[in-house]
Structure to design on (604 residues):
């Protein structure tokens, strides 16, 4: 399953701090969208607002709409927990659960959500998710070893497997390669290409080559000036953003003439 | 000549110097007729500090000399801290070993005057009362800590609780005892002395330490793990039960064991709440209950004639208490080792 995301007039606040203002964009299903921009401009915040993870921080709230195939994630009575079951997330630093084995890590989402799965079903989920995360071959003989024993790149792929094991509609990635070496980064980028077949993928990255390599659509975020909320400057096909952007700020950022 | 080299004292210099200093001090002080071993060690150590500093300065330079001086001072204070511990362990073992016999662990003091008798009633009492105190304190302490870390965050209620927990840590144990005594006197009539009252008094002392140590352990769990769990659509309470608690379990258990060790030797509150009993009583809800600390206290303070068997029983009781605490620590270590997240390579 893969769903379309529409963001309408989204403003995000942390208490009194206005973090992001006036974001409007549409993300097509079965596509990869990259968020780029300098640190602190709110791209991670917007990303987190797509599965309401920004609310984990005390005092965070937002106005506007985020629609998933037309359903407002911020509508009255919406349970953030249900939202997060549909919109998975991979974080900057690999964070497998240290008390769990590789198998248990993959099954964590299923098991912790209290759904009963039989053993064969569980085995199937584990193999399918690890296959999808390109990790199966490396770990199939040591599924009962702790997840923390894997290398950083493997751990990150384990986290991706864990995220897709609960069959979400959307996968969000918050700088998934920034803690990884180039080889592992390549592995994750290949994986993103494959994930696109089934999921809507949104990725935050500081690496512009990466944005250019993996994404179909790119959104550039920036601060108007220091102390003002972050804004979405431009969103267009990656091709256009990197070769012929409409906004001067985008061009400056892409070409490195920034600040 | 290599400009990076510097003079070094040979490895054996320091131990040899220490021995020489001690011998010289012993000789000098015995001439002066002041051959107290304590004085000899202190004066010898000071002499050693001076001489080794001077020697190191002349051979290795001031920086190395200061380094050595600091190392010696630190080691010295460590030994000073160790001295009472070793002396206590030695004293208790040497005095208590005499009565560590089968009779001590199978007999109570019922109808015993003079020699013989044992502490089985006190051992049972201590285990029962401490066990009940743990049963009361661990759930309360654990839940409080979870509230403080996971739910309270910066709410005013949480800071108030944290403040009062800190205050509770400093309650004199006799006050806790009197609190429990009054509580039970109010409900069950004046002068009620039962085991459960002792357990209540001990939990007043135990809860704050459990809260504090658990709180620290929960704080050590990286937020990333909570976020990872939330992002999988796991509700908060299940995240706490299935992710946060297992990750910090080893530390929590260590904290609980330490707080048990802290209360198991409490005497004053048990004296006023659980009282004393010469016979075995395993019912904490009826009649007074003997405990090891109180047993030791009475054996030592109100001996009969001759005194020796009473004192021997007191020492054996103290040794038993230390052994119980040691055993608890070992079990705690074993459990936390078993539950600690494994590195896995």
């Amino acid at each position: 399953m893969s769903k379309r995301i529409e963001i309408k007039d989204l403003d995000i606040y942390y208490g009194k701090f206005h973090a992001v203002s006036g974001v409007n964009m549409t993300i097509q299903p079965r596509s990869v969208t990259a968020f780029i921009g300098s640190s602190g401009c709110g791209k991670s915040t917007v990303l987190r607002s797509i599965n309401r993870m920004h609310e984990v921080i005390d005092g965070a709230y937002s106005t506007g709409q985020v629609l998933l195939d037309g359903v407002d994630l911020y509508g009255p009575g919406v349970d953030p927990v249900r939202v997060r079951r549909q919109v998975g997330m991979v974080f900057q630093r690999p964070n497998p659960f240290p008390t769990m084995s590789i198998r248990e890590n993959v099954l964590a989402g299923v098991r912790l959500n209290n759904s009963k799965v039989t053993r064969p079903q569980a085995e199937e989920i584990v193999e399918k998710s690890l296959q999808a995360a390109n990790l199966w071959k490396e770990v199939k003989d040591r599924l009962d070893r702790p997840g923390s024993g894997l290398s950083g790149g493997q751990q990150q792929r384990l986290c991706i497997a864990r995220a897709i094991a609960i069959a979400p509609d959307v996968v969000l990635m918050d700088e998934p390669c920034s803690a990884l070496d180039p080889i592992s980064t390549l592995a994750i980028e290949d994986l993103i290409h494959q994930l696109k077949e089934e999921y809507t993928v949104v990725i935050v990255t500081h690496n512009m080559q990466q944005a250019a390599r993996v994404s179909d659509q790119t959104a550039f975020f920036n601060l108007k000036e220091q102390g003002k909320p972050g804004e979405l400057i431009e969103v267009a096909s990656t091709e256009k953003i990197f070769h012929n952007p409409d906004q001067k700020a985008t061009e400056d950022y892409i070409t490195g003439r920034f600040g | 000549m290599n400009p990076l080299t510097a003079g070094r004292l040979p490895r054996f210099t320091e131990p040899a110097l220490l021995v020489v200093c001690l011998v010289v001090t012993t000789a000098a002080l015995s001439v002066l007729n002041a051959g107290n071993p304590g004085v000899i060690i202190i004066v010898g150590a000071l002499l050693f500090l001076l001489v080794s500093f001077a020697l190191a300065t002349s051979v290795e330079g001031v920086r190395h000399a200061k380094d050595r001086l600091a190392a010696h001072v630190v080691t010295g204070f460590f030994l000073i801290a160790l001295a009472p511990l070793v002396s206590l362990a030695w004293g208790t073992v040497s005095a208590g070993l005499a009565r560590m016999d089968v009779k001590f662990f199978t007999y109570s003091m019922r109808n015993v005057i003079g020699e013989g008798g044992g502490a089985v009633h006190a051992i049972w009492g201590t285990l029962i009362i401490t066990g009940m105190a743990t049963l009361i304190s661990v759930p309360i302490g654990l839940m409080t800590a979870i509230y403080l870390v996971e739910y309270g965050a910066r709410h005013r209620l949480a800071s108030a609780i944290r403040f009062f927990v800190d205050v509770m840590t400093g309650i004199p144990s006799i006050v806790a005892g009197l609190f429990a005594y009054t509580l039970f006197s109010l409900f069950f009539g004046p002068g009620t002395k039962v085991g459960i009252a002792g357990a209540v008094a001990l939990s007043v002392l135990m809860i704050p330490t459990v809260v504090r140590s658990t709180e620290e352990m929960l704080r050590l769990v990286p937020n990333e793990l909570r976020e990872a769990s939330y992002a999988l659509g796991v509700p908060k309470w299940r995240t706490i039960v299935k992710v946060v608690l297992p990750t910090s379990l080893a530390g929590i258990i260590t904290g609980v064991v330490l707080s048990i060790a802290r209360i198991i030797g409490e005497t004053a509150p048990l004296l006023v709440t659980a009282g004393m009993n010469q016979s075995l009583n395993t019912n904490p809800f009826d009649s007074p209950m003997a405990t090891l600390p109180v047993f030791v206290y009475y054996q030592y303070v109100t001996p009969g004639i001759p005194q020796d068997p009473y004192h021997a029983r007191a020492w054996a009781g103290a040794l038993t208490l230390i052994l119980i605490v040691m055993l608890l620590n070992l079990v705690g270590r074993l459990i936390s080792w078993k539950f600690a997240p494994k590195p896995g390579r």
